[in-house]
Amino acid sequence: MSNNTSTEHGWLTPTSGDPDYDEALDRLLSRWMRNVSGLPPAMVRPRWQKEQPSLPSVETNWCAIGVIGCTTDNNPAFTHQTEENVQLWRHETFECMASFYGPDGMSFASRFRDGIAVPQNNSELNLFGLTLGDYTGLTPFPELINQQWVRRYDMTVRLRRKVIREYNIKAIVDVENTVTISTGD
Predict the structure, then answer these.
(1) 89 band by pLDDT with thresholds 50, 70 and 90
(2) Which residues contact 47 (CB under 8 A, 6 or more apart)?
(3) 95 — alpha (psi -120 to 50), left (phi > 0) or beta?
(4) Are 164 and 89 in contact (CB under 8 A)?
(5) % of the chain beyond a pLDDT of 70
(6) What is the pLDDT of residue 181?
(7) pTM for this one?
(8) How confident is the model at residue 172, as a pLDDT?
(9) Apex 77 CA angle, 73 and 83, nearest 5
(10) pLDDT (tens digit per residue) in 34-54
(11) Would you kindly state where each structural domain of the chain is located, as residue ranges?
(12) Which is it for strands 139-140 and 148-150: parallel, antiparallel or unpaired?
């Protein structure tokens, strides 16, 4: 079993904390949506939940948001080598789908679309290690729910971030072997 350093053979795991994933990322996306769109807190929901709450009425404006894809660069950089550890840097792109429902769904969707283009709103997102990559237009996608047509507008937003993980990969600071170069003479 490894001591989690490069001084012994075996697997290495990061020694630094993880960025937000899973439910923590869902909460962050919901907070971002509420603050930029102006929807009330209870009306922004994670797209997928362990226990699905009942759907709001067709007269209620609300939004479901969630990650539908995550891509990474396949060439992480190993940098900031010290005697004790090294950092792995990798960039991730999260593809998030937001669906706006209700009689004013298009209004809230367009408010969100315009709000994410405001530099100050992106600066607030930067505080959580994320930045706006790009976004699509609004796609009308009416949905039949309980025998009633409900207005729905979808858009996809791509967010980017740099992930930094530290590993206990020790630097080579001294070599006790001698290297002899033969000139062939």
Answers:
(1) very high
(2) 64, 65, 66, 68, 97, 99
(3) beta
(4) yes
(5) 95
(6) 76
(7) 0.86
(8) 78
(9) 155
(10) 999 999 999 999 998 888 888
(11) 22-48+60-167
(12) unpaired
Integer angstrom CA distances of residue 25 from 11, 28, 29, 81, 174 = 28, 5, 6, 29, 43
Cβ burial of 116 (10 Å; 0-12, 13-18, 19+) is: buried
Query: Considering only CA atoms, which of 170, 174, 175 is closest in space to residue 8?
Result: 170
Report which residue type is found at 123: S
* In contact, 141 and 153? CB cutoff 8 Å: yes
Amino acid at 165: R
N-terminal to C-terminal alpha carbon distance within the chain: 48
| Residue 121 banded pLDDT, cuts 50, 70, 90 | very high
Which residue from 162, 22, 20 is spatially nearest to 90, judged by alpha carbons? Answer: 162
**Residue 43 backbone dihedrals phi, psi, to 5 degrees:** -105, 10
Q: What are phi and psi of 120, to 5 degrees?
A: -65, -35
Q: Give the mean model confidence (pLDDT) for residues 96-115.
A: 97
**Coil, strand or helix: which one is 151?**
coil
| Average model confidence (pLDDT) across the chain | 92
Instruction: Judge whether 66 and 26 are in contact, CB under 8 Å.
Output: yes
CATH classification (class only), 22-48+60-167? alpha beta
